[in-house]
Design brief:
By secondary structure, the protein is α+β, with helices and mostly antiparallel strands. Helices cover 39% and strands 14% of the residues. It has a single domain, classed as Class II aldolase/adducin N-terminal domain (L-fuculose-1-phosphate Aldolase), CATH 3.40.225. It has 8 helices and 7 strands; from the N terminus they run H-E-E-E-E-H-E-H-H-H-H-E-E-H-H. Helix 2 packs parallel to helix 6. The structure holds zinc ion. The site of zinc ion (ZN) has 4 residues, from loops.
């Protein structure tokens, strides 16, 4: 993929966040990596989405050194760098403070799999990290936030569980490309909203049976999938 193509995808992905009502002001960002070229493209810090272009989007190397773009990259860049290093299967990351997902993050709770909408996209619970310690908060905060996410994923597959809640903060999703990661972000927010309502109606609600979770997940993922590509990114973000 040409760098310009990746820049255009990152710009389109960022602009999709306010359209999908996942962000207010500039509370969120999309970043993507070209592993062959060794570059990351990410939204500049604090930039309004409608002012973002392929000319001003930030391009950095894998050490975070700015290669292109007139502004400083998002402060969340060190988190993305940790995740790109720790999860070699992923190529794009979305971070937002979308309302319902952030409610679960602020409660410090995993989102249980209460239904098939969830099971279609996320295998079992959507995990929430621990809180950072005072030393971590006062230290290399963003990089250590990335480390805390990787710590939560020990024993979990980031492809089967393409998102995480960061306790007291917000939500990250990821995917094989920008469209995939943004799609997961929209879906996760909807799942978080449904789970919130489920708990509100019935505080003792339990996850659906494991057999149902597995049936729904594996009919769309893995070697025996028979219901794949039904809705991948359709209606979202320009694809050409
Ligand atoms: Zn944040």
């Amino acid at each position: 993929m040409e760098l310009l193509e990746l820049k255009a995808a990152v710009v389109a992905g960022n602009k999709e966040l306010p359209k999908q009502n996942l962000v207010k002001y500039s509370w969120g960002n999309v970043g993507a990596i070209d592993r062959e070229k060794g570059v990351i493209v990410i939204k500049p810090v604090g930039m309004p989405y409608d002012e973002l272009t392929v000319e001003n989007v930030s391009v950095v190397d894998l050490d975070g050194k700015v290669l292109e773009g007139p502004f400083a990259p998002s402060v969340d860049l060190p988190i993305d760098m940790e995740l790109f290093k720790g999860f070699p299967q992923i190529n794009a990351i979305v971070h937002t403070h979308s309302t319902y997902a952030t409610m679960w993050a602020q409660a410090g709770m995993d989102i249980p799999c209460f239904g098939t909408t969830h099971a279609d996209y996320f295998y079992r619970s959507i995990p929430c990290t621990r809180q950072l310690t005072d030393d971590e908060i006062n230290g290399d905060f963003e990089r250590l936030t990335g480390q805390v996410i990787l710590e939560r994923f020990r024993g979990l597959d980031p492809v089967a569980t393409p998102g995480v809640l960061v306790a007291g903060h917000g939500v990250f999703t990821w995917g094989k490309d920008v469209y995939d990661a943004v799609h997961k972000s929209v879906v996760l927010e909807e799942i978080a909203k449904m789970a919130f309502g489920t708990r509100l109606l019935f505080p003792e609600a339990q996850p659906v049976p494991a057999a149902l979770m597995d049936r729904h997940y594996f009919r769309k993922h893995g070697v025996n999938a028979y219901f794949a590509h039904d809705d991948y990114g359709h209606g979202m973000v320009d694809h050409d």
